[in-house]
Amino acid sequence: MTEEKSKIELYRQRAQAFQLAAAFARELKIPVGIRYDKGDVKKEWPVLSIELPNGQIALHIWYEDLDPVWLNPIVAAPPFDDHSNAMKEERILKTIRQLVGSE
Length: 103
Prior knowledge:
Number of helices: 2
């Protein structure tokens, strides 16, 4: 496997994992939605957003890796809250700890 194919596969796996988290979030009645950045005129990189109790987490997903279930119907995500990747990581870890019971 070439380095480029390996990188593509990693992005695909990350997209699938985030979509799985979004599916569990939706099942728990946590708001989940799709939005597009203003510069994405071709709509190639939809943003899947999860509104955790401690803040938003979101991931750009290549349109070919986004399961169509998120598009039928599209539930619009709130606007981007300007979180950084570091903030996203903190929010994820805090939520994990709350759910698992160590916080």
